[in-house]
Design goal:
heterodimer, A: 378 residues, mainly alpha, 19 helices, B: 200 residues, alpha+beta, Jelly Rolls, five-stranded mixed β-sheet, 2 helices, elongated
Chain lengths: 378, 200
Amino acid sequence: MINKSLIKEFLIVIFIVALSRFVFWLSALVWNILHNSNMGLIELLCQWDAGWYSGIVTNGYMKEPSEHPNGDAANWAFFPLYPLLVRFFVWLTGLSAGYAGVISSTIFLVIALVFVFRYISITRNSCYAFSVIVLMAFGPYSFYYSSLYTESLFVALTAICFYFLEKERWLLCGIFGALLSATRPVGVFFFIPLLLKIITPYVIKHESLFGTIKSVINNEKQVFSLLLVPAGLFAYMTYLYFYVGDPFAFQHIQISWGRENGNPFIVLYRGLLGQGAFGGIQSQYLSLWGLLGLVLSGYLIIQKRYYEGIFALFCILIPMTSNVQSLPRYLMGSVVLVYAINDILSRFNKFKWPIIAALSSINVLLLFLWFSGHLITT
Amino acid sequence: MKLPIRGLLYIVSICLCFWYATVLYWAQIPNVCPEYKLYYLDKKLIDWPGYGGLSYNLGEKIFFKTDDNGMQKVPFRGQGWSGIESWGTWTIGHNADLFFALEDDIDSDLIMTTKATAFRPGGYQLVDVSVNNEMVGALNFKHSEIMEYNIKIPKKLSTKSEIMNINFNIHNPASPEQYGLSNDNRLLGIGLVWLQIDKT
């Protein structure tokens, strides 16, 4: 019976993903006609950082910074799990990095949506689940989930982590949490919802702080899963130490992208005033996504979805410490913030589908901008 | 069967803690070249010189002007420099730094020679020169005249393969705007055309 329902969910997801990617293909066709060009969908989908990932897949990590006009950029900023998996896919199929990346990202999206469906079905209801997968497949910036970017893997692992968190499968939380922290630096913050989920029952039982710590330590699975989450990050740091000499090279290299850490709220405020790195309306647009991310995180917390809300907050605040670039991607790529959008839309059932249709139309426009390499889609 | 797994998980947990602590310790003492440290960690260099890019052979003349291809990169510059122009480079503000990794064995005092000008309408720009935080002398640069200036660097301040930091402390930086000469508001001090370090 369970298998039957899983197969049904899987088929729904496959159908929705296939339909949404057909829309992408049509959009590429229209874009080519409008621009009198003959670029393939794969080539059009792999913009901006896709070049960096392609380089890692093909040649591995750089020994010395040499990219960007100042020659100070290196690919250490990009975490290893996704390019490793794409490299494996290249080895398996013989495809180019671009093809392998787009196909594997789309496979990760399918896996993500299956777990999103399951998770939303147990934490909300199945009506919510269907709309959230449509939103993720067709919604704004959903093209990232089929580009040579980490987003779909990150979304898949986040969805899996939260699914097992809900099921209280501690070891699986630890294992997938470790993979999450090897995918993007913010993945390590899954440690916090996991910690909260573990200590909540003890706190409810009014145990003292010492009693809570003792109870957690007495449960070997909980201790191990908590300590396992940062393993992905530390594995990469260990690699960087032996390869470059600096475990934090992934952070220090950000200087070549003009990213230096500061107060995220000041960064957001300056961005809203149009004073960000890109200036004017582009900074304001990107900052609005940052603001939306904060509001949605707050909404999740108010709705007592503390684990999702806190993780969402880290997913949006950490990138905002440097600048407002890519905030739409970080919002859509955090998955839990998409849950929040879906929750809000589901409260207004009458308008839910028209709004999702409108958001899907916006994605086609954004897709055209992405094909053109526009800054607001980075 | 349950007990060994329980014990194993605790042992692995302890190993994880040990591993994380080790990596965090490594982060405190990164094993990187001086260029990496100065540029990425200390943020003291303007341009990324590349690994080994601060290497300097005594007698080598460093030009502070754009090259024939219009490239604007002088790898030795620390903070306190303006953009590179076709004739040379102005210092901005009170302090300007240069960093070198000397490649030669140092068996005598060194002499630093620079062809430079200054911005100090109607007078001279007084500049204290320090090497590795120790003052080695002062130079008086004449306004708007490009001349050669020399200063001695004691042997004890220069060691092979170690980074030598030369600091120019400009006493009275001023902008052309302050003098009503133009709307350039950069606080100019001295302008270097080239610089050379050699044995005495």
